[in-house]
Amino acid sequence: SRLTRYALQAQIGQSFYKSQDFDKTDASLIDGWALAVGRWTSPRALWESEWIEHWRGIPQIIERKKHRHYVNASGHEAFVCFHQQLYNERNAEVYCWSPRNLSTQLLAAIRDMGHRHGFRVLTLALPDSSAKLLPPDTTADPNEQVIATVKV
């Protein structure tokens, strides 16, 4: 499948969801879950890098805001992380672990949470199948990645 980065506006949504701050680090929480948003690497590798501060010696990276949430959007469970971009503090990279692919309810919740955190633009890396849910004003980044799997 092909993965493309998309930029879309954060905005207040008209959806029902529950969200709570999340700070648990145990990787077993995502066993069997995929990276529904942001999959440039394996779900486990990104999960572990989320909690380990590799960049402690570089203040500009450490000072970036990070928001982590457990979300339930109409029964769609997910762990969602917002990372403030390094050179544009009003934009955020979004990562989302979930047992299901992105849904319209979860997308509305992500956009709403991003807006409430003060971000204007959210960047999401998505497979083509999930990109169909994005609104027409979304812009695609020319950066894409092709992921191939082989059954053995």
Textual characterization of the structure:
It is a single chain. 20% of the residues lie in helices and 37% in strands. It has a single domain, classed as Aminopeptidase, CATH 3.40.630. It has 152 residues and is α+β, with helices and mostly antiparallel strands. 28% of the residues are buried. The longest helix has 13 residues.
Strand-residue fraction? 35-45%
**CATH fold description:** Aminopeptidase
Q: Give the overall form.
A: globular
CATH class: Alpha Beta
Low-confidence stretches: none
Query: Helix content range of the residues, please?
Result: 10-25%
Radius of gyration equals: 15 Å
The H/E string reads: EEEHHEEEHEHE
Biggest sheet overview: 8 strands, mixed
| Overall domain count | 1
Total helices: the number is 4
Question: What is the arithmetic mean of pLDDT?
Answer: 85
DSSP strand count: 8
Task: Write a short abstract of this structure.
This protein has four helices and eight strands, in the order E-E-E-H-H-E-E-E-H-E-H-E. The chain has 152 residues and is of the alpha+beta class.
Topology:
Elements: E1 2-9, E2 18-21, E3 34-37, H1 43-51, H2 59-62, E4 66-73, E5 76-84, E6 91-98, H3 104-116, E7 121-127, H4 128-131, E8 139-146
Parallel strand pairs: 6-7
Antiparallel strand pairs: 1-7, 1-8, 2-4, 3-6, 4-5, 5-6
